[in-house]
Write a structure and sequence with these properties.
694 residues; alpha+beta; five-stranded mixed β-sheet; two-stranded antiparallel ribbon; flat
Length: 694
């Protein structure tokens, strides 16, 4: 039995997990439910509870999801209905109810597709993110059911969406899942390519949990290619990270995979030691799939040792559990191996029955590896029964599927040999050049020695000078490397600081959101929501800096687009139509200017949504950024921000200097911080112009 890949259920979550525990989140949500009205806020709380429980207690998750669907349907809140169906489908996957899970997930997908056609730009991004997550879960369910072609289609769609969105973590997950499907189909070169792509993205993000999964999957691919040394190395690397993370399920899977490698190496004591360790953890966790895999692995070792009765007992343990959870891949393995053992025991009728069951499942899941093993077993059985014609046909089919597995390996060996040849050729050429240089250097040394033969002191001085130059050059080279490394370390540290600041601001924002939902006074609630919006605008800047290659500045257009989406999601009133325009070239704004500028735009957008929106007309907001006056020839250090809306405008004679509005005071103070001037007037709505330095 080959080592198995871990199928990741990691998908991007709408809600971030913060430093406080999951129990505190659940407690807070349940408090919200007790006081919430029958509105969309309650739907969101119910859906969030379904999400929080989907892994730890799927039955409870389904209860909350059903409640969310019922209330959202009553309110005709389509986004809430779609989210609840999605979380319910995820919970059903954890209960191995795959058919029901697919119904829920497809129901969610149908609603998201319908909403996408009429959504605004910001809402479209949210819906596309949900679609990516739904396709991932559909792929999960299809994979667990052995429907590899359907799973491949879902993950390919997921990869396309994640690449378009630029979400590197989701790109890595999609590559990982595609790699697993390729491996199941016996396409090892494509599987390895996909998994190495996934590992590259995960190492870049230092995602330890998913790095462990990638190492595991790469090890399984090498196992399938019979490169047992590389397989064992990668599985051990995966196990070490899982122990570091205390990932019990992952540790169990790694123990079983390592045991399978040792079994292939015929180191049976080590194989059984690891397989039984996996079985113990799976029993402790109640993980039936893990138990079935461990029983199958133990039975295979028994079989190789010649303990056929003990092997059958463990295979039937695995068979019973695999039938319960619907693990078609493991069932195909078990049916085939039971058939082989009955053939060894001369129980030919039973042997044929189980081998045919294994063959049918192998065709159903489309696995060349399983077809190769099953046809090999049928070849041996036909020969023993004297059915030589069938034996020959089955032998030919086994060779066909074996070649489909390993002709890629032969191609890889040829390519590897070619690479080694090119490397050796290049090395020989470089060696010849170096020898020529050495000969010229030796000749030059001899000539210099002859010229300076008259004075020993001159030779000594030259030698001393050469040593000093060599030492200084090495010292400079070492200092340069050290300096370069310090720059890299500094950049990583700055990125980590931005990441942590962003996370802490998100915590504050979430606490403000939870607090606002318990406030009855409308003015107090509005003030808290405005404070939350300001915190989110600062957090957005740190998020942009953390994700960007250039850490000293942010790209203005994408930053303002995301900021608008944030403010719109909080303050947009029902039944209002808003057209948002942004006019700006690809311009980077320094971090010193980005924070006050972001807060200014946040205040202006908030005021527009609160006071300038009409329900029976088209509302327009536009933000333009252009170059201001030049301070020196050919170089512009100044910018000019122009903000417009088509609302009723500011009152005639409005005095900004003496305004008591907190928002206007914030705008005036931040404009001074930018070194700019605030100009405002009415022109079919409010217009604010702010020339500033960056």
């Amino acid at each position: 039995m080959k080592s198995k890949a871990i199928f990741l259920f990691f998908i991007l979550n709408l809600f971030q997990h913060f430093s406080f525990s999951q129990n505190k989140i659940i407690d807070s949500l349940q408090i919200v439910l007790k006081t919430a009205k029958e509105d969309t806020a309650k739907v969101k709380a119910l859906a969030r509870l379904a999400y929080e429980f989907e892994n730890s207690n799927p039955d409870t998750a389904i209860y909350f999801a059903n409640a969310a669907i019922a209330l959202a349907t009553k309110l005709d809140y389509q986004m809430g209905i779609a989210r609840a169906h999605f979380y319910k489908g995820s919970a059903l996957i954890n209960l191995a109810e795959f058919d029901n899970a697919l119904k829920e997930l497809n129901a969610a997908l149908l609603i998201f597709d319908r909403l996408l056609h009429s959504a605004s730009l910001g809402t479209k991004a949210i819906i596309l993110d949900y679609k990516m997550r739904v396709y991932t879960e559909i792929g999960n369910a299809e994979y667990m059911m052995g429907n590899f072609s359907e799973a491949m289609t879902s993950f390919s769609t997921c990869l396309k969406i994640s690449e378009e969105s630029g979400d590197k973590s989701s790109v890595a997950d999609a590559y990982n899942n595609l790699g697993i499907i390729y491996a199941e189909q016996g396409n090892y070169p494509e599987a390895l390519k996909a998994q190495l792509n996934a590992l590259k993205f995960r190492e870049a993000g230092n995602d330890r949990e998913k790095m462990a999964a990638s190492y595991n999957n790469i090890g399984s691919i090498y196992d399938g290619m019979n490169n047992l040394t590389e397989a064992l190395k990668n599985h051990i690397a995966s196990l070490e990270i899982k122990k570091e993370l205390n990932d019990k399920q992952g540790i169990s899977q790694s123990y079983n995979n390592i045991g399978n490698i040792y079994a292939s190496l015929r180191n049976f004591p080590e194989a059984l030691k690891n397989n039984y360790a996996s079985l113990a953890i799976s029993k402790e966790r109640g993980d039936k799939t893990g138990m079935a895999s461990a029983y199958t692995s133990i039975a295979l070792v028994n079989q190789k040792q010649g303990n056929l009765s003990e092997a059958l007992e463990n295979y039937f343990n695995a068979l019973k559990i695999s039938e319960e959870v619907g693990d078609k891949e493991n069932l195909a393995d078990v049916y085939t191996e039971i058939g082989k053992i009955y053939g060894m025991q001369k129980k030919n009728i039973d042997a044929l029955l189980y081998l045919k069951k294994g063959l049918a499942l192998s065709y159903e899941i489309g696995s060349p590896e399983h077809l190769y093993k099953t046809y090999s077993g049928l070849t041996s059985l036909d020969s023993a029964m004297g059915n030589y014609k069938d034996a020959l046909n089955h032998y030919k089919l086994s060779i066909t599927y074996r070649d489909s597995l390993f002709n890629e390996e032969n191609t890889k060996k040829i390519v590897q040999s070619q690479m080694e040849y090119e490397f050796d050729k290049k090395e020989a050429k470089e060696k010849a050049i170096q020898e020529k240089k050495d000969a010229l250097a030796a000749s030059e040394v001899k000539r210099q020695r002859t010229i300076r033969n008259s004075t020993f002191a001159g030779l000594a001085f030259l030698l001393l000078f050469s040593i000093v130059v060599y030492y200084q050059r090495n010292k400079i080279s070492w200092e340069k490397k050290r300096s370069d490394q310090l720059v890299v370390d500094k950049e990583m540290l700055i990125k980590e600081i931005h990441h942590r600041v962003k996370n802490n601001l998100q915590v504050i924002s979430s606490l403000l959101e939870l607090q606002s939902e318990t406030i009855e006074d409308d003015k107090a609630k509005a003030a808290v929501m405005e404070g939350q919006s300001r915190v989110q605008s600062i957090a957005l800047i740190h998020h942009k800096l953390y994700r960007a290659d250039e850490m000293a500045s942010v790209e203005f257009k994408s930053f303002v687009t995301d900021l608008y989406t944030q403010v719109e999601s909080v303050f947009k009133k029902p039944n209002t139509e808003v057209e948002f325009k942004i006019i700006a070239d690809e311009t980077n704004i320094s971090i010193d200017a980005a924070v006050p500028l972001g807060l200014i735009i946040n205040e202006l957008l908030t005021n527009t949504f609160k006071y300038a929106m009409g329900q029976n007309r088209k509302n327009i907001i536009s933000i333009a950024l252009g170059e201001g006056e030049r301070e020196s020839e050919g170089v512009s250090k100044n910018f000019k921000l122009v903000y417009r809306d088509n609302g009723p405008g500011l009152p005639v004679g409005y005095d900004l200097e003496n305004s008591i509005s907190f928002g206007m005071k914030v705008i005036r103070l931040l404009t001074e911080q930018l070194g700019g001037n605030l100009i405002f007037y009415n022109d079919n709505g409010s217009v604010f112009e702010i020339p500033f330095h960056s």
